[in-house]
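Molecular record:
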Amino acid sequence: MPQLTLYTAKVCPFAQRAEIALAEVGADFKRYEIDLSNKPEWYAPQVNPASKVPALAYGGPDVPPDEPSPESIKIPESLVLLQLIPELFPESSTLIPKDPIVLAKARLFIESFSNTFIPAYIALLFRGEEGAEDKLRAALDTVIQARKLEGKKYAVSDEFTIADAAVVPFIARAELLLAEDLTKAEAPRTSKFIAEVKADAKYKPFWDYFDLLKDRESFKATWWPDAITSAARSRLAAQ
């Protein structure tokens, strides 16, 4: 297998998608932490012109991560990597369903989540918008209904797939930061909201699903709550 280097950040839910995939396939790779508030000058020109994480350097000579080789192929974007990584290790995980219809359903599940949960997550956590709680409740309903329709253990399958790996970083951060009131909304608005949603029997299927996801070893190995809460406190203090 050609060398792999992942440029990532503990605080970034998009980056955690790629880290979960690498953990699921048991890949041997170099991990390089990018400080998102102070990115290295070489990162954008040599790794990802968009200056975002995650990005994967594939192939080329075995060099230090902070001296990326022009001979390696640099591949950004979390959803691209979430599918590429298991394709590089086709016998190592169930992330990519072998049934093309199930794979299509996984992609649709990710698309739905991206269009509902993530915008509501951003609106509440980073903007404190009025009405964001209703949007987040609606997003939870969407996840519940999608899983109910499939009737599987995970999102679209009885196996853990890219659909599950794509969503768990965002659900985990929402639960953590809302409960700690580490959001743009005035405390205790979000901690009260998350407590109400968890106590509401209507949303039990959603939290049961999340319990399954956060019990994966790949999630546990790539989850840094202390780094996430510390970054949130620093961001709020700066504002």
User: Anything to note?
Assistant: The beta strands are 4-8, 30-33, 55-58, 73-76. The chain has a mean pLDDT of 97.
